[in-house]
Design brief:
about 375 residues; alpha+beta; seven-stranded antiparallel sheet; four-stranded antiparallel sheet; about 25% helix
Length: about 375
């Protein structure tokens, strides 16, 4: 760690009481060196979402992903075991698998034709006589740790000190009654935003503080007076009772597609969000693209699969509501990024009634980024 980074990370006081604490400094959102350090230290120390269980439902299924800038391939091998590898050929570092997803029993690198099976073993290296004398075991694809909590597949780019189930606690237990495994993936939307990835997470975690002023459609169906945030070791839950719009003056566009008794908004450190209503779920995965850019991947799930006029109409209406909310969030996050980069703003207070989730996130960042601590992720 450079002296610059050491000084920058020490500027956040993670042990202050919430009502006296100040947010992480503006330069945590703008500094290129810190962005590179996050990629090296933070994203290699935690469990990260890589894809969906339905993408590897059967032996021979596989999909590719880029996780924290690393190319990966995840597969269900012929014995039904979930496998993960860096999608990098051991010969000259080309991508072995170029398709987004597929089914088969082997992969053949299109550069020089080196071939690997779904267990990562080298099965062929054209014109290389030595390939028959130990190469197959030695030049296997680099493995990566994988685990599954349906409907999601996770990877760990380092050596996990906690199994996935413990890292997620209590998310799976509390969401069991919602039966997320019964939902059907329908579609994906990808957004590129002109803001640091942490700005997007901050916005998500503010305890609904911005909902009454920024999201008229959500404000009409969320009972903001009873909106509650709960924090856990590596995750947090925001939940609110649902209601019908109070008057004709409110925006009722969300009322027909955000139904049931409650909305549940889960966040998993550092970059994954899960939004659940009755029969509806969308997940948000945010990745840094630079100090002032990020990519947000939305996956939409529904109780009824696509393919009928009624289901397709409901899906379209629900996604339209989500996209409107996302655009409202994108606009404000990009505005915040410009303010953080202005050189005028440094830190601000937390709203102690609402922003305990943001403070929890900032404290976890400090824990994982500060060398004097030993993360347990």
């Amino acid at each position: 760690m450079t002296p610059h980074l050491y000084r920058l990370l020490r500027q956040f006081q993670a042990d202050a009481p919430l009502d006296e604490a100040r947010t992480i400094p503006a330069r945590w959102y703008t500094d290129p060196e810190l962005t590179a350090y996050e990629n090296e230290r933070l994203f290699t120390q935690v469990w990260l979402v890589a894809g969906r269980s339905d993408q590897v439902a059967h032996p021979g299924d596989y999909f590719t992903a880029e996780v924290a800038g690393r190319p990966l391939v995840i597969a269900r091998d012929t014995d039904g075991n979930l496998r993960g590898f860096y999608n990098i050929c051991r010969h000259r570092a080309a991508r072995v698998v170029t398709e987004e997803h597929g089914h088969g029993q082997h992969w053949r690198c299109r550069y020089h034709g080196w071939t690997y099976d779904l267990s990562g073993l080298l099965r062929g290296a054209p014109e290389c006589a030595a390939a028959t004398s130990g190469w197959r075991e030695h030049y296997h694809l680099y493995p990566v740790t994988v685990a599954e909590w349906p409907p999601l597949v996770f990877v760990h780019l380092g050596q996990p000190s906690l199994p996935l189930a413990e890292y997620l606690t209590p998310l799976p237990q509390k969401m069991a009654p919602w039966h997320l495994e019964r939902l059907h993936f329908v579609t994906r939307r990808v957004y590129n935003l002109a803001c640091n990835w942490k700005v997007f997470v901050d916005n998500y975690l503010d305890g609904g503080y911005h909902v009454p002023t920024l999201h008229r459609s959500l404000a009409a169906v969320l009972d903001y007076r009873h909106y509650v945030t709960e924090t856990y070791r590596y995750c947090s839950l925001q939940h609110s009772p649902l209601k019908q719009p109070d008057s004709d003056l409110e925006d009722a566009s969300a009322a027909s597609v955000r139904t049931g008794k409650e909305a549940a908004y889960w966040w998993l450190f550092p970059n994954f969000m899960l939004n659940v209503y009755q029969g509806v779920m969308d997940t948000n995965l945010v990745w840094p693209l630079g100090p002032d850019r990020c990519r947000v991947i939305f996956d939409f799930y529904f109780a009824d699969p696509a393919g009928t006029p009624q289901a397709d109409r409901f899906h379209a209406e629900s996604i339209a509501v989500a996209e409107r909310v996302q655009q409202e969030d994108a606009d404000i996050c990009e505005q915040v990024q410009r303010g953080l980069a202005s050189g005028v703003f440094d830190t601000g207070p937390y709203c102690s009634r609402r922003e305990m989730g943001v403070y929890h996130f900032h404290r976890l960042l400090a824990q994982f980024l500060t060398p004097s601590t030993t993360p347990q992720g």
